[in-house]
Specification:
heterodimer; A: 6-stranded mixed sheet; 57% strand; B: mainly beta; 7-stranded mixed sheet; 4-stranded antiparallel sheet; 0% helix; globular
Amino acid sequence: ILNVEQSPQSLHVQEGDSTNFTCSFPSSNFYALHWYRWETAKSPEALFVMTLNGDEKKKGRISATLNTKEGYSYLYIKGSQPEDSATYLCASSGNTGKLIFGQGTTLQVKP
Amino acid sequence: DTAVSQTPKYLVTQMGNDKSIKCEQNLGHDTMYWYKQDSKKFLKIMFSYNNKELIINETVPNRFSPKSPDKAHLNLHINSLELGDSAVYFCASSQATLMTGNTIYFGEGSWLTVV
């Protein structure tokens, strides 16, 4: 994998459903994996920065895991709420010091 | 108090004009960035400064010139604007370079429309 790829591109779920998205990134020269939450017309907001293989982080109902050997990260949202509706971006930084972003997964949670 | 602020938020200008977008961060960070959201909605790095020194300069036209008068400011000047420059430009900052796994903080974006 040469780029950061996210799937699915968009997702519609009902309030209360749990959901997860995938981020694939180049596993060579890996430094850190970032997850951001981005609401329209606002700044992307940092959720997690993960660096270690096997790392798991949690913030309220949102959690993320990291596999640096195979180059993927999962973001989980438990019991989705309408306020979780946003675009979730992942980005990988390697030894170039650049943050390479995926295209994002747009989540819509219906009440 | 906004951590990373950029002005103007919206800018509509004619082709051929020269314009600047200003960015300031009050987080005490050493590193600042300019990102461009391209037509496919990807955020792509344009420039990065660390302690007022240019450390990343992606392949952007030389009509784009960043200037960092001090650690807290990174301005983007664009000469001879073209239609294809229309995009959303995001300023960002981090405590140190991203090679140390630091969180990056974004401004709200500046919507540039060239007509």
